[in-house]
Amino acid sequence: MENKKAYIRRMNIIAGQINGIKNMIEEERTCNDILIQLAALDRSLKSLGNEIFKEYLSTTFVEEIKKDNLEILENVVDLCNMIK
To answer: Is 0.85 topped by the overall pTM?
Structure first.
């Protein structure tokens, strides 16, 4: 993984978001406030997933296509279905 440090940094931010949401629940903050933070967490996770998927496409996928391994296409389709 070329961007390992960046991914770990982003995961640490996401972990902070999760802990913040947990604290909000413990403090009995409004559902509105909690839902806003959950939506932000969802966007953070999707963004990270998209970045990792882009890296996969530009590295592993390209390498396998160059090797004429067309089975990798099925893998990409499966991944696309999972990250919708």
So the answer is: no
